[in-house]
Amino acid sequence: MKLPVHLTLLLFLFSMSFSKAQTIYNESEVPSFEVPDPLVTFKGKTIGTIGDWENVRRPELHTYFETKVYGKIPKNLKIDSYKILEQEDNALNGKANRRQVELTFKHNDKVLSFTILLYLPKKVENTAVFLGYNFYGNHTITEDESVLISTAWADNNEGFDIVNNTLTAASRGKRTHRWAIEKIIDAGYGLATIYYGEVDPDKDDFSDGIQSLLYSKNQKHPKADEWGSISAWAWGLSKAMDYFEKDPEIDAARVIAFGHSRLGKAALWAGANDKRFAGVISNNSGCGGAALSKRKFGETIGVINERFPHWFCTNFKEFNNKEETLAVDQHQLLALIAPRPLYIASAEEDRWADPKGEFLSALYASSVYELYGKKGINIMDMPVVNSPILNTVAYHIRTGKHDVTDYDWEQYIKWADTFLR
Asked: Where in the numbering of this chain does the 4-O-methyl-glucuronoyl methylesterase-like domain appear (predicted)?
């Protein structure tokens, strides 16, 4: 029976207010839950050696995340070609070399390309590189007029002058505050960034992203255990790494996967999938990233799957409002990156991303790092604001909101100087 419009509206408003009321922002309301031990297998065997971790426990954890959370990639797809679209040996007032490189992929009569914007410090050989996606186009991270504007689909955003899903020059430089390019270059590191919408547009439509190149006949959507957008974005980071291995100016053994928010989730999954990444930085990655799911604090699995149904694989929806039935939690995703350096960062006002849940994930992942003789998080309580822990597993919570700041980059550079030089 069809309800009258006014009753339908009332029910909708009630459901919205009920959903909002259920959002937990008070520690006293966090449900009791069990933290699954990274060093105990699904069958109850305790892991006590690196060999058992790498041959038994790590593979079963990775398979679970791959098939139940992020989705597996159905086939390996290699770079068909790469092309240097533009280069300048005197960029950033003479401090850096700039290069814009297009990677192209072809399969099943379809083509997809994405462009890496790369800044490398001059007079530095075999450069270590921070690699991460941006949200609104390569041209937004710098005032540099030579940076090309992507023609890929973009979500409409009045603040970035994006209409008709088209990026324009009006948004050039609007995200410079998130990318401390000169600090990075002055420290002797390179920066590489990609507009994430070129790999997979951030919308619930799998017709024009990288997934569509690998569909079987008559397939229009990834299978239940196949890649959502986060897995696709992680794939793109690994393809950039494929290119870096061909570039003599880059030390491909010292590439750090970086990401903020949803792209922090992608950086973590890329680091778990691809051991070539020398380190991983997750900045305010929250639910489905660094934050523990079973705490149900701030954003939850049910909410994230409702708002962004394309991010994770379809199987992940089995756990909507049923986090307790997950056999894993996000600290075990972090553990998959061991023994490589890992940095988890939170912001004090970003309660939606659950800073405490992010800290606890880093803490609970540390037992795997200790198995390798690496130093993880060695305190049980969160550090005070703006007091970073710079171990192999690093963590800080800073003042401010959901963002990337100069303070964040200063800590990342200091940490990289210690562990990745």
From this structure: 223-373
- Orientation angle between helical segments 229-244 and 262-273, nearest 10 degrees: 60
Active-site residue, 231 included: no
Instruction: Concatenate the DSSP letters of all residues of 157-206 into one string.
Output: BGGGTBBTTB--GGGTTTTGGG--HHHHHHTT-EEEEEEGGGTS-SSS-T
Look at residue 130 and give its three-state secondary structure. strand
How far apart (Å, rounded) are the C-alpha atoms in residues 141 and 171?
9
Structural domain contains residue 199? yes
Can 107 be counted among the known catalytic residues? no
CA 342, distance to chain mean position in Å, is: 13
- Position 97, amino acid: N
Q: Which domain holds residue 205?
A: 67-419
Give the active site residue among 171, 231, 261, 293: 261
Q: Out of 62, 107, 221, 402, pick the active-site residue.
A: 402
Q: What is the pLDDT of residues 145-173, one digit of tens each?
A: 999 999 999 999 999 999 999 999 999 99
Rg (CA), the chain: 21
Q: Give the number of domains in the chain.
A: 1
Is the bond into 201 cis (omega within 30 degrees of 0)?
no
Amino acid identity for residue 409 in this structure: W
Nearest residue to 327 via CA among 32, 33, 31: 33
**What proportion of the chain, given as a percentage, has pLDDT over 70?**
95
